[in-house]
């Protein structure tokens, strides 16, 4: 059995070329020290500037995090408007929507924390986060303590629209960046508002979006962002691998599946099937789309008859493992049956596996969420990836894996799109609802860092 051995890897690789801190005790979070055994080394190296920024962030978090004097003083200030900003400023991140949405908004909030020297704290009332991820920062915690004074009013109080900036600066501010956010919420992305927000000690993010691309369009952040990410489309890739370490329980789901089904294959292909239409479930035109995409892009061999197979047989047939993730079982069942019932034109052997069939979304059910995370992670370990366009579940897999996925277009009129899929120009998630007016609209048209998403042209992504 080809189970990876811990000792064969240099320490340098284990720490993802400086991305991760050396301070952690290995047993507390196996995924942090073992991920490099399962994932090929990234083609993208983090900049030295990013590495040093992360180390200073860790010191800041230790100095200001829960349990410190500074945290105590900052919470005592809450509710009192004042002109003086304390020594520490914070972001409180609130989990909303499915896990993929949560992850991309969490990574965006962390990027904002790095840019503005704030401490990122995670609201743990929807208890999933501690079941899913290890603590990412050494010697401290990112969980917002349950006795946080504003606990009952995080989502509604002191909304952006209600603030009169000409009077005192408020001690906290709730931001709302969801699919239905309004023009006044979008003012956050203006330079003027950033100057004001800088003085607010507590900023609360209610968001399910990847708003990082719009931060690139704020002039005062741009110089810093270019230094942090000289390869622009690596924001999610580096920050995701820095921040998101599955807990030991989720790591067990990942490694047991990997070792049993994927480790022996010569090549692995991930296929993530997300159906957004009504009705959802198994749809013939989606199945045809998957087949059309994987054959056209030569991700899977074509099927043939027994006679022609005898003449065309490759001398060294490969073992190809296909990891299908979907809420429904039928897509992988059909694929598996096809490659059993007929030979492949190349003689390659195609094995098809699907870890779970949950049938419907059950966010905040512990094991359901853990399986979802395990599957995103497993997809990110494959050599090549097909994802469903618009799905944040797929965005997480491609970003963590450092892969440019083939994305399936969202079908319209219950028919298979032609072409069925496209290769992503960058591995970054799409920000589906960016504020595209005023200075931000001008910036999108003139910048080289951000462009419209291929699958959703009102969205933008970092390239
Ligand atoms: P999105 O809706 O595709 O953008 O992705 P989200 O992750 O935000 O929400 C979908 C949720 O449905 C996931 O978090 C899971 O709870 C569930 N789900 C969807 N597809 C799958 C799948 O392939 N496997 C598993 N285990 N869960 C899934």
TrEMBL record:
The keyword Cell wall biogenesis/degradation applies. It is an enzyme of class 2 (transferase). Keywords: Cell wall biogenesis/degradation, Glycoprotein, Glycosyltransferase, Golgi apparatus, Signal, Transferase. It is a single-pass type II membrane protein. GO terms for molecular function: galactoside 2-alpha-L-fucosyltransferase activity. It comes from the Eukaryota. May be involved in cell wall biosynthesis. Belongs to the glycosyltransferase 37 family. This is Fucosyltransferase. It comes from Brassica campestris (Field mustard).
């Amino acid at each position: 059995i080809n189970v990876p051995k811990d000792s064969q890897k240099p320490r340098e690789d284990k720490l993802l070329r400086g991305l991760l801190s050396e301070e952690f005790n290995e047993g507390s979070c196996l995924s942090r020290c073992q991920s490099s055994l399962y994932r090929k080394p990234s083609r993208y190296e983090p900049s030295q500037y990013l590495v040093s920024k992360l180390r200073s962030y860790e010191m800041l978090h230790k100095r200001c995090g829960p349990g410190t004097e500074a945290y105590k003083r900052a919470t005592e200030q809450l509710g009192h408007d004042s002109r003086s900003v304390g020594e520490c400023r914070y972001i409180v991140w609130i989990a909303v929507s499915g896990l993929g949405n949560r992850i991309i908004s969490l990574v965006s909030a962390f990027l904002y924390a790095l840019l503005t020297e704030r401490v990122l704290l995670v609201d743990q009332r929807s208890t999933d986060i501690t079941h899913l991820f290890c603590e990412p920062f050494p010697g401290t915690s990112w969980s917002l303590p349950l006795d946080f004074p504003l606990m009952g009013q995080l989502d509604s109080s002191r909304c952006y629209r209600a603030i009169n900036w000409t009077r005192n600066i408020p001690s906290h501010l709730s931001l709302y960046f969801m699919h239905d956010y309004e023009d006044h919420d979008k003012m956050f992305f203006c330079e003027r508002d950033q100057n004001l927000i800088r003085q607010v000690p507590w900023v609360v993010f209610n968001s399910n979006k990847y708003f990082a691309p719009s931060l690139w369009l704020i002039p005062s952040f741009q110089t810093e962002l270019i230094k942090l990410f000289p390869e622009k489309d690596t924001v999610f890739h580096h920050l995701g691998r820095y921040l998101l370490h599955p807990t030991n329980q989720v790591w067990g789901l990942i490694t047991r599946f990997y070792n049993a089904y994927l480790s022996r294959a010569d090549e692995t292909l991930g296929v993530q099937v997300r159906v957004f239409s009504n009705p959802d479930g198994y749809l013939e035109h989606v199945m045809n789309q998957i087949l059309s995409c994987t054959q056209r892009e030569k991700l899977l061999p074509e099927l043939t008859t027994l006679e022609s197979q005898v003449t065309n047989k490759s001398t060294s047939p490969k073992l190809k493992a296909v990891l299908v993730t979907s809420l429904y079982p039928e897509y992988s069942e059909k694929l598996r049956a096809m490659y059993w019932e007929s030979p492949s034109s190349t003689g390659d052997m195609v094995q098809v596996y699907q870890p779970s069939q949950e049938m419907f979304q059950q966010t905040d059910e512990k094991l359901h969420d853990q399986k979802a995370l395990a599957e995103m992670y497993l997809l990110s370990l494959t050599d090549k990836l097909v994802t469903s366009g618009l799905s944040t579940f797929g965005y997480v897999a491609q970003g963590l894996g450092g892969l440019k996925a083939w994305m399936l277009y969202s079908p319209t009129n219950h028919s298979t799109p032609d072409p069925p899929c496209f290769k992503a120009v960058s591995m970054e998630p799409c920000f589906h609802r960016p504020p595209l007016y005023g200075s931000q609209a001008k910036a999108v048209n003139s910048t080289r860092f951000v462009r419209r998403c291929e699958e959703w042209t009102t969205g933008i992504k970092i390239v």
